[in-house]
Structure formats: C-alpha cells, structure tokens
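Just curious. Protein, please.
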Amino acid sequence: MIARRISPPIDRRITVCPAPQAPAKHSVAALVEFRDAWGERVQIFDPQQLAELPGDLGALLVDAFREHYSDLAITTRYVAWMALRRFARFAAQDGLIGSATDLDSSAVGRYVLWLRAADGSGRKPAASRGTSATAFDVLRPLLHWCQRNRPGALPADLDIPYNPFPTRRSDQEPRRRLSSDQLKTILRACYEEIDEVWDRFQYGQEIIRLPDLPPQARHGQGLARWIWRISRVEGGVMPDHTALERHGIKVDTLRAHWGGYRVVSQHFHITIDSLVPFFLAIAIQTAANPDPLRMIKRDCLVPHPLDEHRVIVDWCKPKTGRHLKKAQRRSFDRRRRYAAPNLIEMVLALTEPLVAEAPPGQRDRLFLTRSPFKDGARRTRRGRTEVIDHSTLRKAVDRFIARANGRIDTWNATQPDNPRSLIERFTPVLFRGSVATEHYRASAGDVLAAQAILNHASPVTTETYIRSAEATRLQRQTIARLQDLMIAWISGSGGNMAEQTSDQQRATVLFGHDCLAPFITAPDGSARVCPRFGGCLTCPGLVIPIDADHLARILLAIDCLDQAKRRLDPRRWEMLYAPSYRILTGDILRDFPDAMHAEARALAATMPPLSELE
C-alpha cells in the first residue's frame, strides 16, 4: 500500500531579503527618555533643542543618540547632548547644510574650523581646545552609527577624521593647585562642621528613640519636644513643609527658634549642607575624582588583610572604555578620629533613614540626600531622595565656604593675635592634582610616590596632574643628582661626589647590593632616609651592569623569592614581594643575554645563600 503525502512539500529554497532602505522621512519622538533597570526615568532630552538642524538630519542624529548612548553614564549623555546642540548652532551659522546628504567631508572640515575658532565666543583657541575636542569626539560615534545603521542617509564618501585636535603637552596650561596650607584650612573647616553635624544627629536619635514625649521646658516647648513630635509624622524622616503644617507644626516656628528647616532636619538624617563637609574631607584624603567619589557605594569599606587597625576604602573609577572600570583603593589607620573610614561610617549612619526612599538603583550609594521640594516646586510636593548631583553639590560647596569664612571672621575678631586664613573659592576637582603635587613635593620629586596615591597605571598620566614650574625644577635637580652619582660610581672620580658616595654614605640593601644615596634632602633642607630604601628595584636611579656577577646575584634573589612564595601566605606574598619578583623576572632578567646564564648560574652556586625573607 502506498501512502500519499497529505501536507505540501517544504520549500527549502534560500530567500535573499533585500537590504533595508533608509526611510524617506525620519520621525522624531516628542522626548528622548532614558530609564534605569527598574524602569525609573532618569534623563529626558527635548529634540526641539535641535530645531536649527534640517529635519531629516536632526531626526537621524536623535536616533543615533538614543541608541548609542542608551547604556552609558548620565554625565556622558549630557555632554553628548550639549555637543549636538553645539553642532546645531554651527549648522545654523554655516547655512550650507540643508539636508542629511549635505553633511559631507567638507562640512565636517568646516565644523572643525568653526570649533577651532572657539565658536566665535571671543575665547582663545588654546583655551577652548579641550572643549572643542570633546564636542567633536562625542559627535564622531554618532556619525559612525548613522553610517552603519542608516546606509545611504549620509554621503557614501563621508570622511570623519579621528583626531582633528591634537594637543602638545607644552600647550597645556597646568591646572590651578591648592597649597598644603589651603588644603589644611579646608580640612579644618570640614572637621568643625562634621562635629556639629554628628552631635546634632546623635542628639536627635536619642530623642526619637524615647517612648514618650519629653517634658516641657521652662521657656516654651523646647527643641526635644519638637523633634519627638516631628519624628512621629513620617517614621523618623523629616517631613516636607506641607506635611508639617498639616500636623500643626509651623515652619516659621522652626525658623524663629531652632535655626530653620534645614538645621532641624540634621537631627533626623543627612542634608545637602551637612553632606558637604564629609564629601570634601573624604575627597581630600582619598585624592579621588569628584564624580566617581559621588557614586561610591555603601559597602566601600574593606578590612585590611594584614593590619587590624587599618581599613581599605574601595571604589570604582569609570574609564574611557565602554565597560572598563578600574578599582581605586586607599588604606587608612582608623585610630585617627577623622580618618576616611570613620567619616564614611558616620555618613552610613546619617543616610540610613533615607535608603528606603531612594530609587532602587541608588539604594547602594553612600552620598544620598533628600531635598525638601521636588524639581523646584512650591511647598506642595514631596521631596526626592537620590545621590547628590553636580549642580547641587557645587552650590552647597559655595554655601560651605561662606559658612566657614563666617566662623573664621568671628575667630579673627576675637583672636587677633592668632588669625586664621580665609578659604578661597574652590571646586572639588582641584583636590586630586593638589594632593598628588603635595606628595610629589614631599618625596623630593618622586613621581612614583604620586602615582601610588593616584593609582595610575602609568606615570605618564600622573605627570599631567603634577605639571608645574616647581615640578620641572625638581625633575631637573633629580636628574642632575642621579647623573652625578652614576658618573662618580662608574668613573671613581674624586671631588664632592666621591665624598658623598664614600663608605660612610653607602648602605647595603636587599640581596646584597649597594645604595649610593640612602639619604635624600627633604624640602626643608633636612636629610632623611630615601622612601625607596629597601625597595630599590623601583628606584629611578637603579643601575645594574650587564655582567655574570650581577646576573648571579639576580638569579639568587629570584630563587629566594620563589622559596618564599611557597612558604608565605598568598595574600602577604602578593602584597609585599610579588612586585619585586615581577620586576626581576619581567624587566631586569630579560636584559641579560642567554649565553651569560650558564656562567652566572655557576657563580651563584659558589656564593653564600641569601637570608630568608621571613
């Protein structure tokens, strides 16, 4: 019996779909919205701000902006949008771009020249080179996105230059630096306010925990009764003005008797003004960039693996790569009252009442604040809890400077024999370079000391933070001193340098080699032990002759480290000895020819063994 096929045969032919054609007319959404992982709207951009662009080009760039910057940081999207608005101003002034097809290579070249002219704002091109380069750098990926995803929308021969704004280091003006005295003055003002804020918070928490209303004071209600009543309105969080008045608590009364709404709020949780001294003190101590520090997480404290009295502050620093983040770590002795870990623990306690009100994506952040009003509205809407933003922080820093200078003026009026310096206007972005410069100066011109503080992968990056006339002078002095030492050591010449490298000035360091300069001259003129003494493999003045005798010593040192690696705790090995081991095996050993190893190994067998590291 033959069975018949009931279903039709399967069509297995390969069908080639035609390439998608760019739509004749792009539609622009009313608003460009970006949301977080929880669906909360975090940023809004209005395409009408690009109305100076031709309709099809504006819609094209808005689509590219929406897709390309969807997973990037809020600040990055804001900078990119400002660059688009700047390009729209160019298009309006240029008058030669009537549609997307007019955006050819010559139009891009005209835009570069327009940026170099500083947008006709009267600024010097050198002063605006960084801003112009940024404006072009954020436009370039949008044009590339259009070429990939909207073929045919832009001219096929469009050439986009990679770096039309090359810069030379000699052209870059060093950023303003805060001196050591200025940093100490800021820290002193921070610690004064921190004490006030912490005392208010502890007092407020004691009152909130009371089961019953505190007794009435002799002269009126008393602050304790007000705090207790307010804490029962919203469960220990400072209510907004409307909620207070709805429960019979007049905001004018708080202003007349207890310093106002903002001061009373400090008894319940952190406020914008009370957050600033903590932020500034932690920023100076960690030498952190303000924006990564602003987004630091609540679990940033890590126990030190070796010292029970030290705590590591760990935070992430976003890099220019799309998804690359580099860990930043600094350890502090928590026995110091105002050490960064102690300040962070205070902020954790001060912000704990606000965590539940923060958006889900920000509940793990440290620097949370709660504004009394939302979006600048009148006293009819509830405040918003979120990580403090740039503009709010900048204005709060200005208020901090005014408060600190007010206290200094009062001090100088009552203590004319012991005056204090006023705080000059500053921004937190100055701290990182200023702290690095102070460490560089204290180490007598050792860029590696500043590199360790800033946690840079390359000293070339660190050099941009410490560039100044004084840094150049220290570099030249260091180079001249090391050259004199090397010449005196190699030639055995007499004179002052021979006296300085005599046996009285020499010292034997790790693995038995000699240090010709165990002492350095501090900025105050005193002599002290070189900070690299004992860790001479990282010394910029290290000189190792290429011969069998020195190779034998290096092989002995590597063997000694190998034995210690098998014996020591892995964490202790990695922290104390692994850097030296990597320098010996990865940098120094490769400079010796292979033919010399047999002779050096034979010499090493006749040398006395090195002592155990631990």
About this structure: The radius of gyration is 32 Å. Residues 22-28, 119-129, 374-382, 494-504 have pLDDT under 50 and may be disordered. The chain is about 45% helix and 5% strand.
